[in-house]
Every structure is written in C-alpha cells, then in structure tokens.
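Section 5.1 Outputs to date
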Amino acid sequence: MSIASGSTARNVHGTVPGEPGIWFFAGADLSVFSIFFLTYSYYFAQSVDLYLESQQQLNVVFGAVNTLLLLTSSWCVVLGVTALKSSRRSSAKRWFASSFALGACFVVSKGLEYTEKFKAGLSVRTDEFFMFYFMLSDVNYFGRLATIKMAGR
C-alpha cells in the first residue's frame, strides 16, 4: 500500500511497493518456471545425447525472433508504466499499444513455429525433450494469448 503525496507515491513502512496481487502472481510464475527448469535439468542430465540431438531440430531464427518479441514487448510495458507515472497518458497508450502489437506478433510467430514442428512430425509425444519444449513454450504462448485478450477489453 502506498500513500500518495502530490504526484509521487511513498511506500508505507512494512509493505511491498505496488499491488500485493501482482507480487503473488510474479512469485507464483517464478516458482512454476523454476520447477519446470529444475525438472528439465534433471531429465537433461539423464539423457544428454537425446536432448542434444533433439535440440538440433529447433529453428534458431524462430527462437531469436520470439525472444526479441517478448523482451521488447515487456520493455514497452515498462516504458508505458513510466510514462503513466509522469502523467504522459498519450505516450503510455502508445507504449502499451506497441506491447500489444508485439505480443500479437509473438503469437503469430509461435503459430508459424508450431506449424513447422507439426509438419516435421514433431509433437509433445516425439520424445522427452519435445514434451518439455512444447510444455514450456505453451506456457508463454497461452500466457501471451490471455494477456492480449485481457488487454483488448
């Protein structure tokens, strides 16, 4: 909880900045991904050759483009929030619209990447590596779809 004084907010002693619900969501997200990656690491160590061979079937261009889209989209949100804090509403709207557009581009790119994988006969059932690949990718993909849907309201 914060106490507004003029146009700046001051943190009340003993509380976290921002909304507690956002911190809960961020902590839950971090926990889920940590468990995913620890589990992935464990199974990778058990079948290194399988994982390295399967990774060769990934498209590095899609991976780079998707990563760039997600990071840039998040950066636009940060700039939008910064603009809001400075009472620059029109600038904030542009940054949030840019984030929305980049998120939509990610969804399209991920759809194209999945199409490529499915045409090559790759799926969650291909092997252990692709089970993790699709599971972790789907979390980002469907999370972005949900974000776009909520932002479109």
